[in-house]
Amino acid sequence: MLDVGDTASFTWDVGSTPDTFSARVRLPDGTQTTLSPTEDPDQPGRYVAEYVVAQHGRHLVSAAATGPAWADVDVFNAAPPDWPAIVGLAEAKKHLEIEADDHARDDELRGFILSASMVVEDVVGVVARRTVTETASGGGRNIVLEKPPVLEVVDVRVDGAVVDPAAYRWSPSGLLSHQSGWPAGLRNVEVTYLAGKLVVPPNVVNATLELLRINWRPQEGGNYAPFDGGAGDDFGNGGLEASLQGNLRLGFFVPNTVIQRLQPDQRGPVIL
After folding, report:
1. Could you read off the pLDDT of 100-151 as tens digits, one per residue?
2. How many CB atoms lie within 10 A of CB 166?
3. Is residue 84 part of a domain?
4. pTM above 0.85, yes or no
5. Can you give the residue range of the structural domain that contains 93?
6. Where on the tree of life does the source sit, at the highest rank (predicted)?
7. Are 141 and 153 contacting, i.e. CB atoms less than 8 angstroms apart?
8. 173 and 231 both lie in a single domain
9. Domains in the chain: how many in total?
């Protein structure tokens, strides 16, 4: 996955030199940037272009030619600004036994790291520290924030007006209470808060790395699936039978051994 400041490279093969060729990128904010593609002198009809990523989010890349008529549309994503990854690229490569100076698949691996981190956070709550802004409906004394643990409530607004911090209190589990009740309304309370863990427990780091390894394995070629038993797998004493025990979570196969490692930090219900 690319980040702001990275260079995205594109290649298009029309088949033969067209009368006209153009390409552009639609940015996440809806604006468009025209690219300056050049034709490969050794391969007529083959065009290349580069774009330095300037925004986080989904980008739409479109190219078109006339004489012959030809068109292509593709997408690339730039990582979220807070980069909510639990483990870093270097420690992931070490766990996967990828040489540190092998950068051929860094962008792909970064995407897998983010996906594995999302799965782990689905079990234990937010780990990677980041700022969250969300809205809730008033009408009661308590509001349950969606992404605990909460490190700090930065700002609360009701119908756009700032609420005095002395009027409310919050808990790390995500309970936000107003001393006299939140004014009634539909999504009228906007809360900005800092979520995540100051220190990531070693079992969470280990579970993230193991989840990444299991689901990265098919990318290495062969007939591997994430739930195949194999040398070096830590599925407990049950071998292959145990390897099939787990569940799909956000598109990742999560073996029971990973869930067990996360159990000490599994988030529980918020007590009102």
Report:
1. 999 889 989 999 999 999 999 999 999 999 999 999 999 999 999 999 999 9
2. 7
3. no
4. no
5. 89-125+199-265
6. Bacteria
7. no
8. no
9. 3
Q: What are 251's two structure tokens?
A: 């598109």
Q: For residue 34, what are its two tokens?
A: 């025209």
Residues in the chain: 272
Question: How many CB atoms within 10 Å of residue 112?
Answer: 20
Residues in Cβ contact with 184 at an 8 Å cutoff, skipping those fewer than 6 apart: 137, 138, 139
Contact partners, residue 220, CB within 8 Å, separation at least 6:
none
* 223 and 117 co-located in one domain: yes
Same domain, 115 and 204: yes
**How far apart are the C-alpha atoms of 193 and 188, rounded to whole Å?**
16
| Nearest of 150, 151, 137, 146 to residue 181 by alpha carbon | 137
Q: Are residues 13 and 72 in the same domain?
A: yes
- Secondary structure in 3-state letters for 39-72: ECCCCCCEEEEEEECCCCEEEEEEEEEECCCEEE
Token representation of residue 269: 């219900």
Bridge partners of 63, per DSSP, are 23, 72
Quick check: helix, strand or coil at residue 138? strand
Helix axes 202-216, 106-124, angle to 10 degrees: 130
Rounded Cα gap, residues 217 and 215, in angstroms: 6
> Which residues fall within 8 angstroms of residue 42, CB to CB, at 6 or more apart?
none
User: Closest by alpha carbon to 205, among 134, 101, 127?
Assistant: 127
- Sequence-distant (6+) residues with CB within 8 A of 247 are 253, 254
C-beta of residue 104 within 8 angstroms of C-beta of residue 59: no
* Residues in contact with 104: Cβ distance below 8 Å, sequence separation at least 6, in sequence order: none
Q: Supply the Cα-derived Rg of the chain in whole angstroms.
A: 24
237-246 per-residue burial string, b: 16 or more CB within 10 A, e: under 16: eeeeebbeeb
Residue 28 banded pLDDT, cuts 50, 70, 90: very high
